[in-house]
């Protein structure tokens, strides 16, 4: 599985990258714009991300805006449904407004921090990555 972690907090970014590296190649970026660029580059290189773990609270572009842009990018390439990347929101925001908004914007999963290896593995299984 090729994954991308989008997280402005350096410690959280490294921890998530370490967790996900057990499942395959994992890149990490600190900002929303970096995520949009990495996502586009991976597609243009023919090696798109299968999973994107996306924080909501980031200074340059929040996770909701990144999610919308990633889905728009896929839509422009006529990638939809099960063919697109699975996007997992990984955030401290557990309120109903943010959760509902993220699913309306087409994320596949939502984990409230702190993200533990067990919670992540369970969510990966739910998303069809096996987690083993």
List the helices and strands and how they pair.
Elements (H helix, E strand, L loop, with lengths): L2 E4 L3 H12 L4 E4 L2 H13 L6 E4 L8 H14 L9 E6 L4 H9 L4 E4 L4 H10 L6
Parallel strand pairs: 1-2, 1-3, 3-4, 4-5
Helix pairs in contact: 2-3
Provide the descriptors you would attach to this structure in a database record:
132 residues; alpha/beta; five-stranded parallel β-sheet; 17% strand; globular
Description:
With 132 residues, the chain is an alpha/beta fold. Helices cover 44% and strands 17% of the residues. The protein contains five helices and five strands; from the N terminus they run βαβαβαβαβα. It has helices spanning 10-21, 32-44, 63-76, 96-104, 117-126; strands spanning 3-6, 26-29, 51-54, 86-91, 109-112. The protein has a five-stranded parallel sheet, sandwiched between helices. Helix 1 links the parallel strand 1 (3-6) and strand 2. The longest helix has 14 residues, at 63-76. The chain is globular, with a radius of gyration of 13 Å.
Tally the beta strands. Answer: 5
Number of helices: 5
Poorly predicted sequence stretches spanning 5 or more consecutive residues:
none
Largest sheet: 5 strands, parallel
Query: Separation of termini?
Result: 11 Å
Order of helices and strands: EHEHEHEHEH
Which descriptor suits the 3D outline? globular
Mean pLDDT: 95
Task: Please bin the fraction of helical residues.
Answer: 40-55%
The oligomerization state is single chain
Beta-strand percentage?
Answer: 15-25%
Main-sheet strand order equals: 2-1-3-4-5
Query: What structural class results from the helix and strand content?
Result: alpha/beta
